[in-house]
């Protein structure tokens, strides 16, 4: 090995799935996909898998079956996905707030709460129409309501990572660092 080259750090080996939880727009899907690439494990997005299973978009499921119908499907799909070994699972923003789904995720995965300032999230979700809970509402108002109702659930995740307003790549680094520290103590 040339003297100048540094030894590469061994890649983190996941013993079980990692589930990303947190508000709509915080980065569960986009950070999760890059995190899975970095760790060479499969990436799954619960919203996409629910859409595949139903053959309908999330918005259409809400319209046809109501939020309760969506939550039923979400619970089943997440339970199935988490039985499939080490992976990164991006959960939907409301999944970890449903008691039965919360318990399934806590049992089967290492849970990571991705968190950042609500103003950063409001900017990211502005002008996107595929999130039924944001449609026709002021995003900041919805996010504040969700902060009040959902943060107590998210706070029960194994790990919290505040990603600030940084790039996807930096967020991935922060999550990998936090996972290493958490898994070393297990
Ligand atoms: N760390 C980040 N740096 C830069 N942009 C980000 C970051 N995280 C998310 N974004 C941007 O914010 C938007 C929302 O991110 P994303 O879809 O990953 O959120 P989500 O948590 O999966 O939301 P939902 O719960 O609605 O599925 C995307 O346009 C994404 O590129
Ligand atoms: O925060 C929520 O309750 C939601 C977030 C999205 O990921 C989707 O699961 C759906 O739009 C509901
Ligand atoms: Mg998503």
From TrEMBL:
Spell out the molecular function terms from Gene Ontology. Answer: shikimate kinase activity
Q: In which pathway does it act?
A: Metabolic intermediate biosynthesis; chorismate biosynthesis; chorismate from D-erythrose 4-phosphate and phosphoenolpyruvate: step 5/7
Query: What does the record's cofactor remark say about binding?
Result: Binds 1 Mg(2+) ion per subunit.
Give the binding site residues for Mg(2+). Answer: 29
Q: What are the binding positions for substrate in this chain?
A: 47, 71, 93, 150
The yes or no answer to whether the keyword Amino-acid biosynthesis is present is yes
Its predominant location is cytoplasm
Reactions it catalyzes: shikimate + ATP = 3-phosphoshikimate + ADP + H(+)
Q: Note the InterPro entries from the entry.
A: P-loop_NTPase, Shikimate/glucono_kinase, Shikimate_kinase/TSH1, Shikimate_kinase_CS
State the coiled-coil residue ranges.
none
Which cofactor does the UniProt annotation name? Mg(2+)
Listed binding positions for ATP are 25-30, 131, 166
Compartmental location: Cytoplasm
Keywords tagged on the record: Amino-acid biosynthesis, Aromatic amino acid biosynthesis, ATP-binding, Cytoplasm, Kinase, Magnesium, Metal-binding, Nucleotide-binding, Transferase
Q: What is its EC number?
A: 2.7.1.71
Q: Which PROSITE patterns match?
A: SHIKIMATE_KINASE
Q: Which domain of life is it from?
A: Bacteria
Function description:
Catalyzes the specific phosphorylation of the 3-hydroxyl group of shikimic acid using ATP as a cosubstrate.
Which protein family is named in the record?
Belongs to the shikimate kinase family.
Q: What is known about its subunit structure? A: Monomer.
How is this protein named in the record? Answer: Shikimate kinase
* Gene source species: Asticcacaulis currens
Taxonomic lineage is: Bacteria, Pseudomonadati, Pseudomonadota, Alphaproteobacteria, Caulobacterales
